Amino acid sequence: MQPGNNYPQQAGNSGDMGSLIGKSLGQFRIVERIGAGGMATVFKAYQPNLDRHVAIKVLPSYHARDPIFVKRFVQEARSVAKLAHPNIVQIHDFGEQDTITYIVMEYVDGGTLKDRLKQALAVPEAVDFIIQGAEGLDCAHRNNIVHRDVKPANMLLRRDGHLLLSDFGIAKILEESTSLTRVGTGIGTPQYMSPEQGMGQKVDRRSDIYSLGIVLFHCLTGRVPFIADSPLTITVKHMNEPLPVELLVAEGVPNPIIQVVQKMTAKQANDRYQSADLLIEALTGALVASNLSMPRMYRVPPIAQVGNSGSNMGSNPGISSTPSGSLAGGKPAPSQMVTCFRCGTINPDSRLFCTTCGDELANGRANKDTYRVNGRPVLARLTMQTGTAGLQGRSYRFHQDVTTIGRTNGNDMIIPGRSVSRRHARLWFSDGHWYLDDVGSSNGTLVNNVRIFQAVMLNDGDTINFGDEIVVFNITYGP
Fold it and tell me: Where does ATP bind (predicted)?
């Protein structure tokens, strides 16, 4: 197994799977086997027409020969493939060839969260991972998909710490294809399974929130809360034993964070956070209450004291981000002046975008620009057609990273109109295309006058409404 591979290796009979290396499944040429488990054998493959590597999961023959299983597998793959979200591994394709059933997914080369958990993580890092997982779950839950097997091994990491959830719906397929409904025999991973799932009861989004809470406990302490010799005993502990809070205290976890973990892992679903969005608010609030650094996309930036006529960059209203190192104990660092790398304009360092050309001042996110056309990175430009406080007509350029859009500080792009929600939408780049997703805003996000309820791919010249505020999207190119 190569360093950084993100799929667990398990002992077991993989049949003749090794013979696939060097052969092709559809347009994908198998390069190497990178993991094996009870559900599938996973290969790294190359797709020549797009010059990229992908991950291919090949079903074991005993599943592939079951027409009911294959039918459900295809149905679930189609549902999950619609979940275009920066914190969910994207499904590219699936098919059958020579009695082989397979699914093609985004290849992630940074390992899994499980690989990171050799010891307890720092509280801000742990919470950052959990918030990213919650963002992915929020998208799935809003599309009526419950993961059912949230655990560190299903949380893939890029090398920069960006987290993606994988294996949505696998547990559901297995549950529907078997008669395992007795206590302690539900399909999933007992160490992270909610009490109701362990009992074989119907589960909903709150079961995923419980599992994510156990993952957070693991991140903060370096171990799962309940350990036993059998899955049944672990399930009973999840049902009856209180969370060992003393382990969190021993690691120095602040009390506001402990309270969130306890609510996430409440025995009764009604006592937990009822949605991932509420969980995210609670986690960010607990970090603030603990005087700890916020994850990048939720940080509250210092308000710039140095103005520039007609500009709202770095203050509210406007567009802003927190520069690295600018927060210490929640206090903003003194403002300094920096020169835009592109046009030479002098700006306060509390601003992310240049007041003149709209480019990112430090060019720090340019390292995300891995997709290029004719040697030039594909970027996004958003131009305000409306907007208060002098934003109308201003244009801003974004790298191939996740851009959060909303009304309040802590977003990458701040649009102060009253019709814009506090957290409104998210823009990101994947596999050669730009995507936009509404994150549960009150007044909605429209693309070309059509309200969107899941992620959509943007085309050059699309008109976007964030509430009543109008923005034009264009594809542009870096140097």
Answer: 57
Mean pLDDT of the chain: 79
Q: Which of 441, 91, 65, 123 is nearest to 251 (CA)?
A: 123
Per-residue b or e along 409-426, where b marks 16 or more CB atoms closer than 10 Å to that residue's CB: bbbbbbbbbebbbebbbb
As given in the structure block, the two tokens for residue 33 are: 């086997």
Q: Please tell me the total count of domains within the chain.
A: 4
pLDDT tens sequence across 399-409: 888 888 988 77
Residues 242 and 390 in one domain: no
Binding residues: 57
What integer is the mean pLDDT of 354-379?
A: 73
CA-CA distance, 19 to 91, in Å (whole number)?
24
pLDDT tens string 111-125 = 899 999 999 999 999
Instruction: Using CB atoms within 10 Å of the CB of residue 129, give its burial: 0 to 12 exposed, 13 to 18 middle, 19+ buried.
Output: buried
**Of 149, 401, 437, 438, which residue is the catalytic one?**
149
Binding residues for ATP: 57
Q: With a threshold of 0.85, does the pTM exceed it?
A: no
Q: Name the strand (E) or helix (H) holding 94.
A: strand 91-97
Active site includes 149? Answer: yes
